[in-house]
Amino acid sequence: MQVLPQFKELIGKNVRVTRGYKYLLLSFDYALRTNKEILALTLIDRINSDVIPQSLLNLHSMKKFSKGEKVIKIEFKSR
Question: Which domain of life is it from (predicted)?
Fold first, then answer.
């Protein structure tokens, strides 16, 4: 709940994407994270090529979370 006010940082220009990771009992395919160690939205890649949100992580309390790569563009395609 502490990071919810910072959620707007995920739609700003300083968003990064990371590859999959396994942390304790959480496993995910990708994560969108803020450039600063604030928060990350974990994502699961589904078989039908949809990527769905899974969990919101507070990066303040996590050690060694991947820095990832800078996001250039996010596209939305409706079916």
Answer: Bacteria
Residues 26-41 have pLDDT tens digits of 899 999 999 888 889 9
pLDDT at 25 > cutoff 70: yes
Assigned domain for 12 exists: yes
What is the rounded end-to-end Cα distance, in angstroms, of the chain? 33
Total structural domains in the chain? 1
How far is residue 63's CA from residue 46's CA, in Å, rounded to a whole number? Answer: 27
In a domain, 79, yes or no: no
Report pTM.
0.78
